[in-house]
Amino acid sequence: MARRICIVLHYRRPNSLLPILSHVSFRSMKKTLFLYLLREITVPFLLGMAAFTSVLLMGRLLKLADLVVAKGVPLTDILLMVAYLIPSFCLVTIPMAFLLALLLAFGRLSADSEITAMKTSGISLFGMLPPVLLFALIAYLATTFITIYALPRGNISFKKLLFDIMESRITLSLKEKVFNDDFPGLVIYTDSYDPQQHSMTGILIHDERDPQESSTIFADKGVIVADPVSKILRVELFNGGIHKLFGKNGYRQIEFQDYNLSIDLSQAPKEMVKNELDLTFSELLEGINSSRTAPSMHRDMLLELNRRFALPFACFVFALVGVPLGIQNHRSGKATGFSLSIAVILIYYIILSTGKTLGEKGLVHPAVGVWAPNLILLAIGLYMFKKTATEQRIFLFDIVPALVGWADRWNGMRRGLR
Q1: What is the 3-state secondary structure (H, E, C) of the chain?
Q2: Contacts (Cβ under 8 Å, ≥6 apart) of 55
Q3: Phi/psi zone of residue 89: left (φ > 0), alpha (ψ -120 to 50 degrees), beta?
Q4: CA nearest 98: which of 134, 122, 67, 70?
Q5: CB within 8 A of 296, min separation 6: which ones?
Q6: Handedness of CA 36, 41, 44, 46 (dihedral sign)
Q7: Average pLDDT of each block of 10 consecutive residues along the chain (418 residues)?
Q8: Is 247 left (phi over 0), alpha (psi -120 to 50) or beta?
Q9: What is the per-residue pLDDT for 157?
Q10: Which of 143, 209, 288, 415 has its CA 20 to 30 A from that of 398?
Q11: What is the phi/psi pair of residue 75, to 5°?
Q12: 217: closest CA among 259, 168, 279?
């Protein structure tokens, strides 16, 4: 006969776990407990995903809005670009949201004495870990899928769509009496522009595509003609002059009646060139194993390969860090839980950025530089988890109040001296 457990505790929340644990079988209680913990983690996780993704997307919204307002890009293309950006956001937001969910969920459970109820029922902190690790495994698999498959394809699709928009809409971005720099290496000014005929008057063009021989062109009239097959944009200019500089003292002026200025749209700007972030998993392995890969590119590929596995693994690290921090932070509320998640994430990415920089300079192996934050926080998480499981206070929650109290006393002494 299954062991029966009867718990009589005062509880504050009507829908808390305490009445559920009253007079149920041990096996059934564990199943109910696991489902309950998964539900408690899921809700703040989804809210955290929405919040963090929105924050990261805000940095792109101004540029995307400019494409709509200034260049007349359709809203459907903008939505496609946002969809292509989502994988790069999820690579960061999934571990962040998971950490936030643990802090909020276990902070709430501890504040409502439900952690005490679970321990009284014979379930230790280690017994609460399986649903947390299950959720961490799901987050890990989702993030790994994104890094290996969705991220490179999303980056490539975003750059291709952006280049197609630039190619098809570049003539529509010309504005009268404004210095337009949308053309690579060129700055164009025109007194008037007819978007229907693509004709201009009062033209000034500064050409810096060759830094050694920059030139400035003046013309009375001009017409823009695009060739979609060769991806060449030709600017036909009439009645003008070319002013060229050679070195420090050289100067040449050429007068013309007809002059054709060609712009090669097939040469994408640097930000549209494919890099290691856009390579698939097989392409990364091929580049790393190839003897023709340059040493600097080889290091970048190794860093990127390790990063694609290290960032998803952070979900397991945050599981060991988030549970003890959430339980011992039960008195401070949700605001402190959010602040703690930001602090932990900031520490993680500072260590990651430092290790990546050392790896790029060849001072440490790329794997060491990228995996360093996981190893450091894993050790800290194991220490905090052991302390919390044995009912010991983490020193962090004693130091911070002591520092705050010391600062208050110091300010009081200063006001007294005045």
Answers
A1: CCCEECCCCCCCCCCCCCCCCCCEEHHHHHHHHHHHHHHHHHHHHHHHHHHHHHHHHHHHHHHHHHHHHHHCCCHHHHHHHHHHHHHHHHHHHHHHHHHHHHHHHHHHHHHCCHHHHHHHCCCCCHHHHHHHHHHHHHHHHHHHHHHHHHHHHHHHHHHHHHHHHHHHHHHHHCCCCCCECCCCCEEEEEEEEECCCCEEEEEEEEECCCHHHCEEEEEEEEEEEEECCCCEEEEEEEEEEEEEEECCCEEEEEEEEEEEEEEECCCCCHHHCCCHHHCCHHHHHHHHHCCCCCHHHHHHHHHHHHHHHHHHHHHHHHHHHHHHHHHHCCCCHHHHHHHHHHHHHHHHHHHHHHHHHHHHCCCCCHHHHHHHHHHHHHHHHHHHHHHHHCCCCCCHHHHHHHHHHHHHHHHHHHHHHC
A2: none
A3: alpha
A4: 134
A5: none
A6: negative
A7: 37 48 58 87 92 85 71 78 89 92 88 81 84 94 92 86 68 74 80 83 87 85 74 83 78 87 63 70 86 85 90 93 82 66 89 90 90 93 87 65 54 61
A8: left
A9: 87
A10: 415
A11: -65, -30
A12: 259
- 317, two tokens: 């690290």
